[in-house]
Amino acid sequence: MGIGGRELLLLLLIALLIFGASRLPALARSLGRSARILKAEAKGLADENDAPEEDGGRPAPAQQQYQAPQQPRQTGPQALPPGAGRDGAVGQEGQASSSQER
Prior knowledge:
This protein is mostly helical. It has a domain at 25-55. The protein is built from two helices and no strands. The chain has helices at residues 5-19, 24-54. The chain is elongated, with a radius of gyration of 34 Å. The termini are far apart.
């Protein structure tokens, strides 16, 4: 079940209504350029894959992939030292400093 003549004509008519007659040639030209570039890149990749066989069977040097260093995972809240207040500050005599004690 592919696209038939009627469906193609309907799609073309909808494109004409959406983009207008003046922009359709530019869009078609741009689409053709994109297809040409894609085809050239695909051919370049295929040629690149075939190149090691022509060089005496030596495989191409492998590319190293960058691997980001992993950060240590924190599993839960860290314990506060004895006498520490909610904000983690410790008073001069080892007691938690708080605004309510003043």
